[in-house]
Write a structure and sequence with these properties.
Elements: H1 4-59, E1 75-81, H2 91-105, E2 110-116, H3 118-127, E3 131-135, H4 144-159, E4 165-175, E5 178-187, H5 208-288
Helix pairs in contact: 1-5, 4-5
């Protein structure tokens, strides 16, 4: 049986770890609340703009804007959104696994990677895979400006003619305890729903080209902003759950170690009592002789 001192040290160590995990759980819960509020504010606008652009794409020619027409280079890009930090369960591994699966699904396409988040960047670097662009630390100060910079970089890569399509894989927030890995097309922009009946043309002011130039970039920025908010909220939910599970496991371990300590202490006390009783009995017999 382990020594009492060793058991006490283990109990103290687990209690210290429990304090850390419990604190991280509370911090993640506070961040999750703020992330949820920002996400729920952004979702209606992003969905509405997505419907508008999808409807608009039916009424314009693909040649009206480069973002509407697929490229011909035979190369694609996959935007992989992970976190900058760990301790969030299978959050990052699920995203990276889906990215690998997507690349394996299209072996005929030379796929480049746009990595968002330190975990994804490090994962691809270790394997020597081509990274066209990387964003690290974006979740430390998440803002629409950071999303705009990322969207403009993606647009620049696509308009250069090197890419035929762009897709994004990320975690989508469902609830504080549930996230879902999703893969969605980003470029070229295509209608999302078929239009039933005759298509009525729009009147454009000042012109179709000028309107598309503004709207399509805004659509790209808003979609990337929503993707980042979804990923950040999902990350905080995953971290909160992971730290709660770690805290519960620490409580169980402390209970088991305390029981082991009490058993060891009782055994030590019993041994001392037996030694004292044995010594007294030996002294009594010595006196009788």
């Amino acid at each position: 049986m382990p020594a009492l001192r060793d058991i006490r040290r283990r109990i103290a160590s687990v209690r210290s770890t429990r304090q850390i995990t419990n604190t991280m759980k509370m911090v993640a819960a506070a961040r999750l609340r703020r992330a949820q509020e920002a996400l729920f504010r952004a979702r209606p606008y992003a969905w509405g703009l997505e419907r508008l652009i999808g409807d608009l794409c039916v009424r314009v020619r693909k040649e009206s804007h480069p973002l509407l027409a697929p490229g011909t280079s035979g190369r694609g890009a996959l935007v992989v959104v992970t976190s900058d930090r760990g301790l969030c369960g299978a959050f990052n591994s699920n995203v990276l696994r889906r990215a690998i699966e997507r690349m394996a699904e299209r072996p005929e396409v030379e796929m480049g990677l746009i990595s968002v988040g330190k975990k994804g960047r490090d994962f691809f670097r270790r394997r020597g895979w081509p990274v066209l662009h990387e964003e690290v630390g974006i979740f430390q100060e998440l803002s629409i400006d950071r999303a705009r910079n990322l969207a403009e970089r993606i647009e620049e890569l696509y308009l250069s003619g090197d890419l035929e399509f762009v897709e994004v894989v990320h975690q989508e927030f469902r609830s504080p305890v549930r996230q879902e890995v999703v893969l969605r097309p980003l470029l070229p922009i295509v209608p999302h729903e078929p239009v039933e009946g005759p298509v009525r043309p729009y009147l454009y002011e000042p012109s179709e080209e000028a309107l598309l130039e503004v709207l399509l970039l805004r659509y790209l920025v808003v979609q990337m902003w929503r993707v980042l908010l979804e990923s950040f909220a999902a990350e905080q939910g995953a971290r909160m759950v992971a730290m709660e599970n770690a805290t519960d496991n620490a409580d169980e371990m402390i209970e088991e170690l305390t029981l082991l300590y009490n058993k060891a202490r009782q055994a030590a006390i019993t041994k001392e009592i037996l030694e004292v009783a044995g010594g007294a009995e030996a002294m009594r017999k010595a006196e009788e002789t």
